[in-house]
Every structure is written in C-alpha cells, then in structure tokens.
Amino acid sequence: NAAMAAQMSDAHRRFLQVLMSHGIMEGSEARKLHRCCCEIHKVYYAHDKLDDFITTINIRLQPLFMQIRKGMSEGDGRAHYALVNLAETEITKMASDYAENELELFRKTMDLIILSENGFACSTDILNLADQLKTKKMKKKEAEQVLKIFVEDKWLSERNGEYTLHTRCIMEMEQYILSIYQDTARKCNICHSLAIQSQVCETCGIAMHLPCVAKYFKAQTEPRCPHCNDFWPHEIP
C-alpha cells in the first residue's frame, strides 16, 4: 500500500509539531495546515489526502504510543483532530500536571457531567463539592481558579456557567470513561462514539448526540426512535 509506506517528510514533522502545540484542531484548520506544510516543504499536496498524510505520521508515532485521532465536537458535529496518548490513561497523565485535590475536583465534576440529563454540570454544583474534597478541601475562589485552568487546558469547556467535557477530553478519555462509568456512560446510536451531550429515548434509553439527532431526523416528518420506533419526545436541534 503506497500510502502506508509513504515516507515521513518535513511537511509531516511540521504538521505534527503544530498539532502538538494546539493539542486539538478543527477539521478546517487541519486541512489548511496540511496544505501549508506541503507548500512550505515543497511536498506533493492533494487536498483529499489528509487522512493518508496523517496515517504516515501515525505509523511513526506507534512506538511512542501516541496517535492523531479524528473525532467530533458534540456541540456542532464538526470534525476535529487531536494528538492522543495511548500509553497511559489520561487520569494518570493529568496526575503529573495537577495537585491531588484538583484531580479529585475534576473527577467529581466528571461524575456530575456524566450523570446529568444533558451532559452539563452547573458551576454552583461543582463549587459546592470544593469543601467536601477528601484529599484537601478547597475554598470557592480556589476552585473557580482550578476550573478556569481545566478550561484553558482543554479538559472542560464552559458556557454560561455550565461545564461539559471538552472535545479533546472526550477523544482522549473515551475508553476510560466507558470502563469507569459502565452503567451510565452511553454510546451514540448513530455514530457509536461516546455521547456526553445527548438526547435519550424515554422508552428504550438509547442516546444520540445533538448533531446526530439533527442529521437523523432531518428527512423525517414524525421523529421516531431509531431503536424502538417510539415517538421522539425531544426538541430537534
């Protein structure tokens, strides 16, 4: 397979370096970067060959237990590319960056998000946990600062005081979350990846991402559950 055997070039190296510094990139940004890297290093550029280009990098990353993964933003359904670490669960990777009580706050926030109806936890509920931490209690102000850092580091994203897991976090932690929250974490019935922000069928309990819901019901006059065929009770985004 020619694509599989393609040599790693300076264009590939530059692409990897830029992606590393961002951690995650939207599909359109990644496509721009692909073109830019090929042009700078005078390497053959084909606009529809980004995935092959990335495969070449991924082959070189295998021995390092790293991988560039393609995923979807739960908010708008757009493709994203992220550099993920396969060697250690993300919680252990986070352990080198954060204090014990910060990690405990993150885990508790993740509990709230995953156990919620809509995939969001409100700041009030999160901040109320701060003085119940087992490792070392946090003052509200301190906890607010820590939440800000989790947003900056792309573990959480925030909208009007509501927190959810960042796209990058979901891409990195999917396996971890599915194994830790076996009874509560759901996969999307349409795209089969982990669904945090989702709508759930009230009859059979299947979940669908909001962008997947929008796409699936686009052509249907009366929205019915793809699994049990009961009426879909939610507002279609």
UniProtKB/TrEMBL annotation:
Primary site of residence: nucleus
InterPro entries: Nse1, Nse1_RING_C4HC3-type, WH-like_DNA-bd_sf, Znf_RING, Znf_RING/FYVE/PHD
EC number: 2.3.2.27
Xref: CDD domains: RING-CH-C4HC3_NSE1
Superkingdom assignment: Eukaryota
Keywords assigned by UniProt, alphabetized: Chromosome, DNA damage, DNA recombination, DNA repair, Metal-binding, Nucleus, Telomere, Transferase, Ubl conjugation pathway, Zinc, Zinc-finger
Cellular compartments per GO CC: chromosome, telomeric region; nucleus; Smc5-Smc6 complex
Pfam families: SMC_Nse1 (PF07574), zf-RING-like (PF08746)
GO molecular function list: ubiquitin protein ligase activity; zinc ion binding
GO terms for biological process, alphabetical: double-strand break repair via homologous recombination
Catalytic activity, as annotated: S-ubiquitinyl-[E2 ubiquitin-conjugating enzyme]-L-cysteine + [acceptor protein]-L-lysine = [E2 ubiquitin-conjugating enzyme]-L-cysteine + N(6)-ubiquitinyl-[acceptor protein]-L-lysine
RING-type domain: residues covered: 188-229
Subcellular location: Chromosome, Telomere; Nucleus
Enzyme class, broadest EC rank: transferase
The protein's assembly and partners: Component of the Smc5-Smc6 complex.
Protein purpose: RING-type zinc finger-containing E3 ubiquitin ligase that assembles with melanoma antigen protein (MAGE) to catalyze the direct transfer of ubiquitin from E2 ubiquitin-conjugating enzyme to a specific substrate. Involved in maintenance of genome integrity, DNA damage response and DNA repair.
Family to which the UniProt record says this protein belongs: Belongs to the NSE1 family.
Name of the molecule in the record: Non-structural maintenance of chromosomes element 1 homolog
Protein source organism: Asarcornis scutulata
Taxonomic lineage of the native organism: Eukaryota, Metazoa, Chordata, Craniata, Vertebrata
